[in-house]
Specification:
- The chain is globular and about 60 Å long.
- α2 (about 50-60) packs antiparallel against α7, α4 (about 130-140) runs antiparallel to α9 and α7 packs antiparallel against α8.
- It has about 450 residues and is an alpha+beta fold.
- Helix content is about 35%, strand content about 30%.
- The protein has an 8-stranded antiparallel β-sheet. The protein has an 8-stranded antiparallel β-sheet with strand order 8-5-7-6-14-15-13-16, with helices on both faces.
């Protein structure tokens, strides 16, 4: 009889625990003039900040301001967000998705890549490496469905999701997997990377971009000398000081704002086993300013100068990894076996270095994004880009955006030539590349 009486009490207790551990999400479009305010109120959990930021960035939202406070056993996060166009959120489907995702954040898991085999690669970057990797996969009858590739300080990390070309199924044959790994390891080794080149088949389900950060961190890219030069548009200023009164270490980050900046910083602090207790995020036209009050998981602050310097180096690397270097090219073309190998081979033959890549395939169409520079990290010649576009197919490959240096050069050219050439200054208007740039608003009209 007593057992029957206790059962409803236990059920109510379990419900109470669930309610206490379920974040309360409030979305307010009236309290802020130029952004939507999202408030997350929950029981304290060391990983909740990263999970919340991950949800918002995966929805392509821009975090303009933020306040984080974790006192005692309770946590309050407030974010001011916009869409990528800088507008408030008005789409009910997006708002509902935010409420559902953040409301179940303690039970959220990274999405599974079903029906695909996942490869992880790290090694020394070089011109043409991506072409060699995709050529090997094409030769071994592997269909690349999705992939992300980052480079930093002369290192490369890639996550590749693939299927067998013939069956459309994941590759489960152990001998074939061993053959793929061995071939790719030889490609990554090249002539001088015998020890650090790594290939593996991943069985764990981890957020792709967090995993790329982890791979490059494990590869110690933060402690390596760059092989190619970069122009440092996103070079951050990072400082670490100890607040002895409160036993916190205070991390300050100042840099140019960009999408997913907060995710990259919080992800790195979390994976370095630090807990964020308080934070302030503020962004504007003059840049992003982030401040974090952190401790080790055991509750202690940073204890040595060497550890401070390591945190500074790792945060700088995390910010720079995703910062795009070079011209952004977008390929939208019907997918076919060997397409990636063909496109990246064209880049290699024209001495273009791919600094970042994002590969996806939907409904039989390939949407691939590449950032390219010349072999030593300098801006690639636009005439060369024009030639590559013609070779791959002008209707399929287009320039999406140009780095600041191209705009500066265009402005300089305008001043130097407008007086003598008048309305004909846009001398290559007839070329496909210039016409695309003009239509996209990436260069000015000289007429």
């Amino acid at each position: 009889m007593m057992q029957m009486d206790r059962k409803p009490v236990l059920e109510e207790y379990e419900k109470l625990i669930v309610r206490m551990n379920t974040p309360r999400v409030m979305i307010d479009n009236a309290g802020c003039v130029d952004a939507t305010r999202i408030m997350i109120d929950s029981a304290r959990n060391d990983g909740i900040l990263l999970e919340a930021v991950q949800v918002l960035t995966d929805l392509n939202l821009s975090i303009k301001k933020g306040y984080v406070s974790s006192d005692g056993r309770w946590n309050m996060d407030v974010f001011h967000v916009t869409n990528l166009d800088g507008n408030k959120l008005t789409d009910d489907s997006i708002i509902n998705c935010i409420e559902q995702s953040l409301g179940t954040i303690h039970r959220t898991r990274s999405k599974s890549i079903d029906g695909m085999t996942t490869l992880e690669l790290t090694g020394t970057g070089r011109v043409g490496l991506l072409s060699e990797i995709f050529a090997v996969l094409s030769e071994l009858n592997c269909d690349v469905v999705e992939s992300k590739v980052w480079t930093h300080n002369g290192r490369i990390a890639a996550i590749i999701h693939l299927k067998d070309c013939d069956s459309g199924s994941p590759i489960e044959d152990a001998k074939k997997i061993d053959r793929i790994e061995a071939r790719l390891r030889n490609v990554l080794k090249g002539d001088n990377d015998i020890r650090s080149a790594k290939t593996s088949v991943s069985l764990a389900v981890t957020h792709t971009e967090r995993r790329l950060h982890q791979m490059m961190f494990a590869d110690r890219d933060y402690d390596r000398t760059p092989i190619v030069t970069t122009h440092g548009r996103y070079s951050p200023l990072v400082s670490v000081q100890n607040c002895l009164e409160k036993a916190y270490s205070v991390v300050n980050v100042q840099c140019r704002d960009r999408p997913k900046l907060l995710f990259d910083v919080v992800c790195t602090l979390t994976d370095m086993q630090y807990v964020v207790f308080h934070a302030t995020i503020n962004t504007g036209e003059d840049g992003a300013y982030l401040e974090f009050y952190i401790r080790h998981i055991d509750g202690s602050p940073i204890s040595s100068e060497a550890e401070k310097q390591r945190v500074i180096m790792c945060l700088k690397a995390a910010i720079e990894r995703r910062a795009p270097e070079g011209v952004r090219l977008e390929l939208f073309k019907p997918d076919k076996p060997g397409l990636l190998a063909q496109v990246t081979r064209t880049f290699r033959e024209n001495a273009m270095n791919v600094t970042q890549a994002e590969i996806s395939t939907t409904m039989g169409m390939a949407l691939n994004i590449f950032y390219v520079t010349d072999a030593i990290g300098n801006p690639v010649d636009l005439k060369l880009v024009d030639s590559v576009m013609q070779g791959i197919g002008s209707g399929y490959l287009r320039v999406k955006e140009l780095p600041l240096m191209y705009h500066q050069k265009t402005d300089s050219d305008e001043q130097n030539t407008s007086s003598s050439l008048g309305g004909s200054v846009l001398f290559s208007l007839g070329s496909l590349l210039r016409r695309n740039l003009y239509n996209l608003g990436l260069i000015k009209s000289f007429s």
